[in-house]
Amino acid sequence: MREVAIIGVGQTPVAEHWDKSLRDLAAEAIYVALADAGWSTTEGLFVGNMLSGSLNHQENLGALIADWVGLRHIEALKVETACASGAAAFRTGMIAVASGELDSAIAVGVEKMTDSKPAEVTAALATAADADWESAQGLTFVALNALIMKRYMYEFGWNHADFAPFSINAHANALHNPYSRLPFEITVEDYITSRMVADPINLLDASPIGDGAAAVLLVPADSLDRYAARDGRTAVRIIGSASATDIFALHDRKNPLWLAAAANSAKRCYAQSALEPQDIDFFEIHDAFSIMSVLSLEACGFAECGQAPRLALDGDICLTGRIPITTMGGLKARGHPVGASGVYQIVEIVQQLRGKAGKNQIDAARVGMAQSIGGSGATILTHLLQRW
Amino acid sequence: MREVAIIGVGQTPVAEHWDKSLRDLAAEAIYVALADAGWSTTEGLFVGNMLSGSLNHQENLGALIADWVGLRHIEALKVETACASGAAAFRTGMIAVASGELDSAIAVGVEKMTDSKPAEVTAALATAADADWESAQGLTFVALNALIMKRYMYEFGWNHADFAPFSINAHANALHNPYSRLPFEITVEDYITSRMVADPINLLDASPIGDGAAAVLLVPADSLDRYAARDGRTAVRIIGSASATDIFALHDRKNPLWLAAAANSAKRCYAQSALEPQDIDFFEIHDAFSIMSVLSLEACGFAECGQAPRLALDGDICLTGRIPITTMGGLKARGHPVGASGVYQIVEIVQQLRGKAGKNQIDAARVGMAQSIGGSGATILTHLLQRW
Q1: How many domains, in total, are found in chain A?
Q2: B336 catalytic residue (yes or no)
Q3: Does B142 lie in the same domain as B56?
Q4: Which DSSP string corresponds to A42-56?
């Protein structure tokens, strides 16, 4: 396989874009990514999206978006792995370029959720869970995560307030990200008194839905000498990429508190890059709910089982901490347009590695890790990116 | 890229499988494909499916099916390109193996449509068209194809009865395919007097929906010496693979009677294999509607523009003709479980190339072509397979 590099990134704000359709959002992110690289075209388009069939009455998104942005006649398709769809589209595009089949590809994650009624969105998100054995019993997606969090608190003796730093850190970082959905700071008091959604998950444990799109342009690394970086918009190297699945329904797993697919995909990335957790400078984590940050940190080797809340309480997840997470606000506060989030993470890592993360810049950021989760841990993709 | 071979195939009958869920159908096809190759596992699962989100309340199909069939922890995802989803999943799996990222992959196409009400299925299928500029105006998917057929008849002076041979040929071939949905023969009289669906498309111009799954096992060709063919179940070589898109909405195309994405993807396959249309022994065509067979034959170089009905009237599309099409019944009579059809085509080509097509066997079949169409020509994938 050829090594693959990212040479352009783009994103829209995560918001209620009532004036922009699904294809408009995707186009905006793609145009920015192309302009960022100084390019005007690409050979393939890989769309990450989860809900367009159920919420937007639109499939065949690959061809739809390729046509809309003027990339006519190119290869295009949609990839779906629930909330990890963006990361899966990114990996699929990367493999197509690595294989030599394509000499360039755009991965775009896009989701348009706020035109639909809340009950429709809740039902659509439940398609990430097992329709026959979970959703059909009345379990919403947040309820599944609530069961996990409750069990975690019981097993390891943590109180709900101990999870506050995850939300506080995400919101603090979103404040300085112009693309974020909830750019305001919160306090421990705000967290504790926030409205309950599904006990013990309250509103500030849960990421907000939203409309948005993020895109990256991928090329073979050996072609980079042809594309000089302009204005410090340097290329970024993909040094690890892996995807894994787990037993699907929560009740079938021997240990519902261990994200096997996170551990497996992270391990593969560490092996590919010859790096270890301590070599990672920051971690864009799938904090759809606070508990998912906890389980990811543990599965990826940043904390012992049952001890990730300690990491957060000690400040180790902040921008200046040992392993900064959600450096631009994460799913929690940048927002979670589900099929797009996996690509937002990649865009944000590129911003950090280029030294373009503004007030949220990590000092001497060299290696960033992204992890995206589909379902309650059923599909997990991990990526490692390195400064050129 | 490494050359890739198919070493196992499996399929379920296309039917109203009221006793089998989506995952059951996929599992059945996967188990048969693995057993066909004498294998028990694989490294990746690529699911082609269009409608699970809108009709089955289930996404994250990759992980769901991987778990269900016991292929736990492997990489898995769903690929969607409307009715061409199966072909796109096949190509995505092929590229993953060709790249070296995976040493084996299963592509499975699956669709479960008959549990839903007809109006729900019609609305779901319309997501293949442009939601904002076509479906929102009341155009169903069959209505779009009716507009194309009407224009074709007007431009080139054909009568409706001239299209009869496409349907008659498909039904004749389905008769001897134990997996087919409509295994009965029809006459010209049946065709002419069949009930109208959307003028000029009648019931015998249109393919039936259905439930079904088809699967293939892909491995690098250079590993084939390790897997001896048993009982004549030889490997099949993929010698051409290409995907292309077109201007999305029908009304935006300069010529709605020219499938540019069919022509572009076929041309690329011809170039990859150094073959020409006259070297192709048979053609598994996307005959969702009779008019699509016509346009595919013309775009791929088997007939001049406006002349494909002549090919059919002359008997050239029959099993003993110049370019046999839909040799196992096609979408028209084997049935069209939409996201699965692209993989059914591949399975049927393998049957022919192995000499295992029973009463439908093409003499000395050496090279077969498959073409799968998503939307009214918006996404088209073409594949060329060759006997080992």
Answers
A1: 2
A2: yes
A3: no
A4: -SEEEEE-SSHHHHS
Which residues constitute the domain of residue A158? 124-208+239-387
- Helices B141-156, B290-299: crossing angle, 10 deg rounding: 60
State mean pLDDT over A39-48: 96
A48 Cβ under 8 Å from any chain B Cβ: no
Q: Is A123 in contact with B57 (Cβ distance < 8 A)?
A: yes
Confidence of residue A225 (pLDDT cuts 50, 70, 90): confident
If asked whether residues A178 and A72 sit together in one domain, one would say no
Ranges of beta strands (E only) in A33-171 are: 44-48, 75-80, 105-111
B282: β partners: B368
Residues B100 and B193 in one domain: no
- B105 lies in the same domain as B143: no
Q: Which residue has the tokens 């606070």?
A: A290
Q: How far apart are CA A260 and CA A268, in angstroms?
A: 12
Token readout for B300 is 């791929």
CATH number at residue B48: 3.40.47.10
| pLDDT number for residue B388 | 84
- Going by C-alpha positions, the residue among A82, A122, A166, A100 that lies closest to residue A381 is A82
Nearest CB among B92, B124, B374 relative to A92 is that of B92
Asked if B258 has any chain A CB less than 8 Å from its own CB, the reply is no
* Mutual angle of helices A164-174 and A290-299, in 10-degree steps: 100
Q: Which DSSP state fits B372?
A: E
Q: How far apart are the C-alpha atoms of A343 and A366, rounded to whole Å?
A: 19
Q: If DSSP codes are grouped into helix, strand and coil, which group holds residue B143?
A: helix
Q: How far apart are the first and last CA of chain A?
A: 19
Asked if A78's CB is within 8 angstroms of B375's CB, the reply is no
A to B CB pairs, distance under 8 Å: 211
| B201 and B218 assigned to the same domain | no
Beta-strand relationship, B75-80 and A75-80: antiparallel
Residue A173: C-alpha distances to residues A159, B194, B252, B359, B374 (Å): 24, 65, 44, 68, 42
Looking at the structure, do residues A33 and A164 belong to the same domain, yes or no? no
* Overall residue count recorded for chain B in this entry: 388
> Contact B245/A128, CB-based, under 8 Å?
no
For A371, residues 6+ apart whose C-beta sits below 8 A from its C-beta are A262, A265, A266, A283, A284, A285, A286, A296, A300, A345, A380, A381, A382, A383
Asked if B337 and B213 touch (Cβ cutoff 8 Å), the reply is yes
pLDDT digits (tens, 9 = 90+) for B42-101: 999 999 999 999 999 999 999 999 999 999 999 999 999 999 999 999 999 999 999 999
CB–CB contact A62 B132 (8 Å):
no
Specify the length of chain A in residues: 388
| CB nearest to A73's CB, from B74, B77, B245 | B245
Q: Do B334 and B307 share a domain, yes or no?
A: yes
Please indicate, yes or no, whether residues B174 and B317 belong to a single structural domain of this protein.
Answer: yes
Q: How many CB atoms lie within 10 A of CB B158?
A: 19
Structural contact between residues B145 and B83, judged by C-beta atoms closer than 8 angstroms: no
pLDDT in tens, A168-206: 999 999 999 999 999 999 999 999 999 999 999 999 999
Q: Pick the catalytic residue: A171, A286, A336, A383?
A: A336
This prediction's pTM: 0.98
A3: closest chain B residue by CA? B99
The helix/strand/coil state of A109 is strand
Amino acid found at B252 = D
Tell me whether residue B318 is one of the annotated catalytic residues.
no
Q: Is some CB atom of chain A closer than 8 A to the CB atom of B168? A: no
Q: Do A80 and B59 touch (CB under 8 A)?
A: yes
CA distance B103 to chain A (A): 13
Q: Considering B83, B269, B300, B318, which one is annotated as catalytic? A: B83
Q: What is the ipTM of this complex?
A: 0.98
- Is residue A94 within 8 A of residue A241, CB to CB? The reply is yes
- Beta strand A367-374 with B105-111 is unpaired
